[in-house]
Design goal:
- The protein has 105 residues and is of the alpha+beta class.
- The chain has one domain.
- The protein is built from 4 helices and 3 strands, in the order ββααααβ.
- Strands 2-1-3 form a 3-stranded antiparallel β-sheet, with helices on one face.
- A hairpin with a 5-residue loop joins strand 1 and strand 2.
- Helix 1 runs antiparallel to helix 3 and helix 3 runs antiparallel to helix 4.
- The chain starts with a strand and ends with a strand.
- Keywords: Plasmid.
């Protein structure tokens, strides 16, 4: 087995974080699910006008990452861009995602 393992660390606040382990072979499905989850959260947290006024840029970024996946861009590259978009969106909060990559032999 010569596989790449990705470890994502989601910081929710100063004391709470979640660690997820993903093999590269499962990454495409994970990214789609993450995009859908983020879009659902925005729909639940903001009304229609606020989404357009406040979150339009982030939603556009999410759509662009889905477009990248649909058009064959490498999943790790898409994930790195997605993390960059997420961290930028939440830069004034404690929320953050960190990525580490490991080779599993």
């Amino acid at each position: 087995m010569n596989e790449e393992l990705l470890v994502l660390k989601f910081y929710h606040n100063e004391k709470t974080y979640l660690v997820e382990h993903i093999f590269k072979c499962d990454l495409e499905e994970y990214i789609y699910n993450f995009i859908y989850s983020e879009a659902d959260k925005l729909r639940n947290e903001y009304c229609g006008v606020d989404i357009i006024d406040i979150k339009f840029g982030y939603l556009t970024d999410l759509k662009d990452r889905q477009y990248d996946l649909d058009n064959g861009v490498d999943e790790i590259e898409v994930l790195e861009k997605l993390i960059e978009n997420y961290n930028y969106e939440y830069e004034h909060t404690i929320k953050e995602i960190k990525l580490r990559k490991f080779k599993v032999v």
